[in-house]
Amino acid sequence: MDMEIDLSNLGTVNTMFAALFSKLGVPIKTTISANVLEEALNGTVTVRPLPIGASVSGKVEKQCAHFFGVTINEQQAESGIVVRVTSTAQSKFKLLYFEQDVNGGYGLALQ
Q1: pLDDT per residue as tens digits for the range 10-57
Q2: This prediction's pTM
Q3: For residue 65, which of 99, 100, 40 has the smallest C-alpha distance?
Q4: Which of 14, 87, 90, 96 is deepest in the core (most CB within 10 A)?
Q5: Which PANTHER family does the record match to this protein (predicted)?
C-alpha cells in the first residue's frame, strides 16, 4: 500500500511518531505543502539567484520552501549539472524542480 502523509495535518504527537519511525528506517512518504504549491503556481514566491558553484546555508521552516533560480548555458544543459543539498541537522527534505509558466507562476516539473 503506497500512501503519502500530509504532515501539516498531523498534531504534535503524531508528527513525533512519524519522525521516530522515519529515524528507525521506516520509509514515510510525505506530501508537498499545499501552501508551497499554491504560492509557486501564483508566482508569489521570491526566487533568489544561485550562481553555479555558489553555496547557500540557512534554515527552512516546516511545510515551507526556499526558491532558487539557476542560470545555465547550453553546454551545461547538455552535460548536466549536479545540485548537492544537505542538512546539518540530518533532517529529511524534498528537492523540487519548478519551471516558470507563461503566466509568471511556477509549475512543479520534477519531484
Answers
A1: 667 766 666 676 667 766 666 788 888 899 999 999 999 999 999 999
A2: 0.70
A3: 40
A4: 96
A5: DNAJ DOMAIN (PROKARYOTIC HEAT SHOCK PROTEIN), J DOMAIN-CONTAINING PROTEIN
> Which of 8, 9, 67 is closest to 39 using CA atoms?
67
Compute the CA torsion angle 68, 74, 80, 85 (nearest 10 deg): -10
42 CB-near residues (< 8 Å, 6+ apart): 105
Choose among 9, 5, 50, 52: nearest CA to 30. Answer: 5
**52-91: burial string, b at 16+ Cβ within 10 Å, e else:** eeeeeeeeeeeeebeeeeeeeeeeeeeeeeeeeeeeeeee
Contacts of 11 (CB under 8 A, 6+ apart): none
Residue recorded with cell 500500500:
1
